[in-house]
Write a structure and sequence with these properties.
6-stranded mixed sheet, single chain, alpha/beta, 4-stranded mixed sheet
Length: about 350
């Protein structure tokens, strides 16, 4: 048997337990078993490492019971005393990515065991943890499993053997913002000219100093006649009817909600609350108008400052939500608002 012992972490989907309907699946440990992606990882490891057990946890369960789930998983991993902990890969599954990165970082920090995970670069787990744990960039879906495993295993073995890790471009992990000196085969001037010539010729090239890329959105023209405008409220602050009927997640929301406020002049703690897990909910639950100002909008409506308040509001949770998901929700909400003849929107956050 291989000297390197590995514990693998996956969610309910990759364990073939179920999809969203099983996302509340609690922590389970299968000693001696390789499950789902673990089979591909083991095949790539060959005789160099052995997966000695698989930890399974539902995405919702982990994110909604993060302290308890983390403590339980740390206890399991500590008892098994592996040489390496691997989580995922999670691809573009947001809650799964956050769970993988969270538990990998905790295993590394609290147990001193090398840890590794993999996910798509736009996964919220990557933004939150790429400077804390090694994350291998993957494609955005499980169709990229073979490529992900091919990249993860060599880095995993180096971590388990406590070998020196090279630059991110050498060992296939997300840039952690740490600069390391190394020798290039060509001087910087030659490399710069090569890149310039490729750029001028329209050929592909890789910059040595990548810059972040942000969308630029042109603002809409001002509303000229607010006294006759139909105004809607939209929030990423998670305000929902009491009980959160659509089960919008407290982190990395997989959906948005549409709810009626027809005839409602004030949001009270008896009828509304916040589902958001990224801020102290006490004051929002005490008076949900603090996040979604229905009371003030009704006053403006009565005073003739606006034409009317739209009888529906839209809500989701911005905490850890992937940019791609937020874009999708925004486009769908906008299309519904336009269909309802809304002239202006007030977007509130936390």
């Amino acid at each position: 048997m291989a000297d390197i012992k590995v514990i693998h972490y996956i969610n309910q989907f990759f364990a073939q337990i179920g999809g969203e309907e099983k996302a509340d699946y609690p922590v389970e440990f299968r000693a001696g078993e390789k499950v789902g992606p673990g089979l591909a990882l083991q095949q790539k490891f060959g005789d160099e490492a052995q997966i000695v057990g698989t930890v399974i946890c539902g995405d919702s369960y982990f994110n909604e019971h993060i302290d308890d789930a983390t403590a339980e998983i740390l206890k399991i991993v500590g008892e098994q005393k592996p040489d390496l902990f691997i989580a995922g890969p999670a691809f573009n599954a947001g809650r799964y990515g956050v769970a993988c990165a969270t538990i990998a970082a905790k295993v590394q920090e609290e147990l001193g065991i090398p840890a590794l995970t993999g996910m798509y670069e736009e996964n919220p787990g990557a933004d939150l943890f790429k400077n804390k744990v090694y994350i291998v960039p993957t494609k955005n879906s499980a169709a990229g499993m073979r490529d992900a495993v091919k990249k993860m295993v060599p880095l995993a073995l180096k971590l388990a053997r406590h070998e020196q890790i090279g630059a991110s471009c050498e060992d296939n992990y997300m840039n952690q913002g740490v600069r390391v000196n190394f020798f290039e085969s060509k001087p910087g001037a030659d490399r710069a000219v090569d890149m310039l010539l490729k750029k001028l010729a329209g050929k592909p090239y890789t910059t040595e100093y990548p810059m972040p890329s942000f969308d630029r959105v042109d603002p809409n023209p001002p509303v000229l006649d607010m006294a006759h405008a139909k105004v809607a409220l939209v929030t990423s602050g998670g305000i929902v009817p009491k009980g959160n009927p659509d089960h919008i997640e407290s982190s990395n929301a997989s959906k948005f909600g549409e709810y009626s406020i027809a005839g409602v002049d004030d949001l009270t703690s008896d009828t509304f609350e916040t589902a958001h897990g990224g801020y102290d909910p006490t004051y929002a639950n005490d008076d949900p108008d603090r996040v979604l100002p229905v009371d003030i909008m009704r006053e403006l409506e009565k005073e003739g400052e606006i034409g009317s308040l739209h009888d529906k509001f839209y809500t989701t949770v911005g905490n850890g939500t992937a940019v791609a998901s937020a874009k999708k929700y925004g486009a769908e909400i906008a299309s519904r608002l336009k269909a309802d003849g809304v002239d202006a929107v007030i977007l509130t956050s936390t």
